[in-house]
Amino acid sequence: MAAPVVSARRRAGGATTVTPPPARRELTGRRRRAEARRRAEERRAEETEHRGLPTVTVVMAVAALAALVAGIALYTGFLTPPGTSAPASPVASLQRLVRAESADVTVAGGSGWVVDDRAGTIRRFDPSSGAWTGRPVHVAQRPVAVAAGFGRIWVADAVGDTVVEVDPATGRRIGAPVSVGGEPVSLATGAGGVWVASLAAATVTLVNPRTRAVTASVALPPRVGAVRVAVGDGAVWVTGVNDTLTRISPAPVGVSLSWKPVVVGNGPIGVTAVPGAVWVADAVGGTVTRVDPRRDVVRARYRVGGDPVQLAVFDGELWVADGETGALRALDPATGRPEGRTVTLPGSVRRLVVTGAGLWAATANPGTVTAVTP
């Protein structure tokens, strides 16, 4: 079952090129491949000039040329010997904990919580064993996102256009739902409240966790939009519908929120913020982008291919999940190089969530919650 966002296939556009880290700029693949081609052309020219040489000499020259070109190509990365791009062993192991339709998952206070957008329920489980520790409780028409914070569990209802507060002791809803923008699809807690990204309305809403009242909101232009929200490094970060990451100040001006766009890769969906970096998964472009949260500029872009829709920073690695194949890979954040072999989640990924000391994946078709262990 597809997540309630615009699919990567509908966000048409071209792929962008990889921007390597500054420390390796003099060794870019483009420059090294250009140098390899230049040297090869020079050798071919010399070979043409010496066509009159004896056959043995020509054969030796051709062999030397081939060895030289192959050596340059291998050095530059134009050709890569099989198995040299990553260690032989996988970087992570997967433990399938929950088998149920899972739109999103969070872990807090020693308990895991999974929302089922088909049944409209939330249910508690043991994150160490996957055993259910509570009955499913109906909380919304279509709960698609869940987050923990301020001693409560918060659920976004994409059909009811509301945010629901849940008591973690009972799993039941507290009070009346909070009305937000149309089709809320993502939640984040911190920086003064509960932050809600609404896809259809293209709004970002700040909810006071104590009063359950909307403190402030901002309506972004439709060309910018709101798809996923994350809190970190002094700001609120929202991916958009085209090529935009929006930085929102967590300090409201009255009931309004100030914002600033940052152009990233094509078709951004997943976003996560850690000290010193904001990472964006560009689903259409097949890249991940690193944004400097101090200057609001792109510092690196790594090509991963496929349909990268979710990412997370965990255990010192950048984890990227493919929305179609379920492939999960770890990258070195400094270079973009793969760490270990790709592992495959049991279904199409809907969320990657880091909570406490764990990395969790929610998938659909089949619906599961999977623990990722480095």
Average pLDDT figure? 82
Strand count: 28
Radius of gyration computed on alpha carbons: 24 Å
Number of DSSP helical runs: 2
CATH class call of the largest domain: Mainly Beta
Mind explaining what this structure looks like?
- This protein is mainly beta and 374 residues long.
- It has two domains: 22-76, no CATH class; 89-373, YVTN repeat-like/Quinoprotein amine dehydrogenase (Methylamine Dehydrogenase, Chain H).
- The protein contains two helices and 28 strands.
- The protein has helices spanning 29-49, 55-76; strands spanning 93-99, 104-108, 111-116, 121-125, 137-138, 143-149, 152-157, 162-166, 173-179, 184-190, 193-198, 203-207, 214-219, 228-232, 235-239, 244-248, 259-263, 268-274, 277-282, 287-292, 297-303, 308-314, 317-322, 327-331, 343-344, 348-355, 358-364, 368-373.
- Strands 1-28-27-26 form a four-stranded antiparallel beta sheet, with no helix packed on it. Strands 2-3-4-5 form a four-stranded antiparallel beta sheet, with no helix packed on it.
- It is globular, with a radius of gyration of 24 Å.
Topology:
Blueprint lengths: L28 H21 L5 H22 L16 E7 L4 E5 L2 E6 L4 E5 L11 E2 L4 E7 L2 E6 L4 E5 L6 E7 L4 E7 L2 E6 L4 E5 L6 E6 L8 E5 L2 E5 L4 E5 L10 E5 L4 E7 L2 E6 L4 E6 L4 E7 L4 E7 L2 E6 L4 E5 L11 E2 L3 E8 L2 E7 L3 E6 L1
Antiparallel strand pairs: 1-28, 2-3, 3-4, 4-5, 6-7, 7-8, 8-9, 10-11, 11-12, 12-13, 14-15, 15-16, 16-17, 18-19, 19-20, 20-21, 22-23, 23-24, 24-25, 26-27, 27-28
Helix pairs in contact: 1-2
